[in-house]
Amino acid sequence: MSEISNKTSRYQFTIVVPVYNEEENIAKLEKQLSAFIPHASCSTCVLFVNDGSTDKSLPMLVEVCERNNDFYFIGFERNKGLSAAMKAGIDYTFSPYVGYMDADMQTTCEDFNLLLKDIGQYEMVMGIRVNRNDSLSKKIQSKIANGFRRMMTKDGVADTGCPLKILHTDYAKRIPFFNGMHRFLPALIQLQGAKVLQVPVRHFPRQAGQSKYNLWNRLAGPFMDCFAYRWMKKRYINYRVDKSNL
Question: 198: which residues sit within 8 A by CB, 6+ positions away?
């Protein structure tokens, strides 16, 4: 897909929304996102990434995109996971800025305007969920995982699991991707010398659908991925060309 033929290049900001079996939330997503776009602080579109859903999510997304001029979608033939969906969303985005939010409706796209205020001065602006509306066990698991990840990555980020993030698209496209990458976006973009800002955002209880996370992928998986990140950090190649006669 070239930038010339990609419709996201017409906008300043693309919101990537990975979707996996979220049929109960599609209508609410459409309502919230369509209401936000006219009030976004820059020209904005939505790119849904259907991650091989086995429910009615894909046909519902097709209908949503037919009803809304600024909504687009791509779809996987089978489920590949959140990191793959995020990578695809970034690969297919050609606006200057690319953002991310979950389809579970636990955060609101309205808070993207809070993040957009500072995206000119930082390569990544991300949310910190305040007054989290999760179960006690989920909060404890998240706190343990965040603490271990911070110790291993030294990225200084309090809440890497917050799905509201905005990045400069050119930086996002250079991030080294791997399964589990979505937990390390701030640390991975910092490998390029990027600056990251954290901004408080709202958080809501899940009203519909099922969480895709459990004890294994919230604790054990991230634990192993931290060592993968440490290995890669020592070998990461980062350069900038300042002179050329090409």
Answer: 125, 126, 127, 128, 157, 158, 159
DSSP E strand stretches across 123-184 = 124-129, 165-168
What confidence score (pLDDT) does residue 70 get? 97
- Domain total in the chain: 1
* CA atoms 202, 204, 209, 215: torsion sign: positive
**Strand, helix or coil for residue 52:** coil
pTM of the model: 0.82
Tokens representing 79 are: 């489920």
**Contact predicate 155/196, CB 8 Å:** yes
Domain that holds residue 45: 7-235
Taking 3-state DSSP, the helix, strand and coil percentages for the chain, each rounded to the nearest 5, stand at: 40, 15, 45
CATH number for the domain that contains residue 214: 3.90.550.10
Residue 237 Cα distances to 154, 184, 191, angstroms: 19, 17, 9
* In-domain check, residue 203: yes
Residue 53 gets the label, from left (phi > 0), alpha (psi -120 to 50) or beta, of beta
Reported as a single tens digit per residue, the pLDDT across 92-117 is 999 999 999 999 888 999 999 999 99
Is 2 within the bounds of a domain? no
With respect to residue 103, please indicate whether it lies within any of the assigned structural domains: yes
Q: Strand pairing partners for 197?
A: 125
CB-based contact 8:90 (threshold 8 Å): no
